[in-house]
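Quick board copy: two proteins, each given as sequence then tokens.
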Amino acid sequence: MLQDAGSTQSAAPPADAAAAVTAATAGAPVAGHGDAAALTHMGFNDLVHHFDWLSWLVFVVLVVMSIGSWLFIVINGWRVFAIRSRADRVRHVFWDTTSAQEAVRTMEEQPKWEPFSKIALECASAAAHHQRHEGSRLVEALNRSEFIDRALRQGVARESGRLEGGLTWLATTGSTAPFLGLLGTVWGIYHALINIGASGNAGIETVAGPVGEALIMTAIGLGVAIPAVLAYNALTRANRVTNAQFDEFAHDLHDFFATGARVEAGAAPVMGKSAAAAPRK
């Protein structure tokens, strides 16, 4: 009897241990279930929910950069398209007119934003101003060619500067937005590590959510920077072509208003006329 009682008592502890293991297993997440639940907390809504003041600051700056970039992309894109679509027409209209007065009136009828007409009007105004002050100190200080050349340089520089509006914003956005997104990511991972250390649990269900949310900031920064960089390169190339057209048109205007005739490309030189047209010393 004593032996049976002893054997019954020795069998009791294993039963209690099995019950404890069963209870612990019931309270623990099923393998894979916790990981799947963690992946559902890696979205943008969870990211915004865990924002602090620095995260909000970085996010707002990126949003402002993105809005400004797309605004300048649309405005400058429309401007480049409008200028290049009217450039040949405006220049042909100017040279096809019968007189300089008629050409000036045609340029005055062009839209206010059209740059080629403004350059032509600047040159015509300088030529007329120099002609009105013949015999004055102005004519003695600068001859007609130099005075027109200065006016053309100012006109071309002014219109070229207007083409560059917004390029600084695009360049700044393209160069700084990735680093701002990286700053938000580093800050989010830092807080995630603090939370992991406080909870004492470094499982995937604890790490995946905060780290995934933080990485979204890097994606936002790249999403802001890439369109800005592409637009900056495209607009810079387009402005370079337009500036070359400005210079070509300005040279023709200088020849026309300084000598009274446009120098035709590829025309054979006439030595007699050239000598006759040479200024007296």
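And the next:
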Amino acid sequence: MAREQTRGALTQAALRAAQIAAPFLLLALLWQSASFSFPKYLFPSLTDVFAHVVAIFSSWALFSEVLATIGRILAGLIGAFLLGGALAALMYRFGAVDRFLAPILNFFQGIPALSWVVFAIIWFHGTEPRIFFIMTVTSLPAFAFQVLDALRGMSKDLVEMVMSLRPTLMKMLRAMVLPAILPDILTAWKVNLGNAARVVVVAELVGATGGVGYELLRQQQLFDMAGALAWTIQLVLFVLGVQQAIVMFETWVLRYRPTSERAA
């Protein structure tokens, strides 16, 4: 019986892996087919792209550019999350603050990332302050509104019941607020991570002398499509890896939630 259950679990895992891999295999097949019919600078073979990826991983000088971009993404997201969370708490607590800040945050959301790049170049000296400002200000409205919506989504009856016990601020945050808003916060991180990866490329294209965005600009100048794809894959792998880490953390920390007994 146990052997049959193990075999069934392995079969389901294999089917899920095949379902995930199938679209990527089809895309790779189509790309490789196009490489036989078009010039190399338009559709390089997957072998050439893989060779560029290996070259980036095997060279510290090149891989350090990837790490620099990753550091910029994480620094900007952490800054935006901390500031956006603080603003959301104030907006949730005070209606006047909400009425004052909401239009400003909506206005900021309408400003293109490229405009923020231009502003940062004019306002700041140095690459890192510029990119940190761009990453923070472009992610700030989304984090603020997402945390605010999570706070507003808490059960009013449950909040009143917990408040009737006269908890300390830390106990209130730990026992009531954080468990209630954590799922929405993790979702916000997964969404904003992809947006930040796109914004950092724009910031580095215009305002940096290093990083994945800068390297993509160099590949464009060299008309090297294989190199451009290889550098793009670095960001994709980072985003997928961090999102998977968030999913694993979410599964662990929210393991108390009920799950359906039916198989997916």
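Board note added afterward: The two ends are 22 Å apart (CA to CA).
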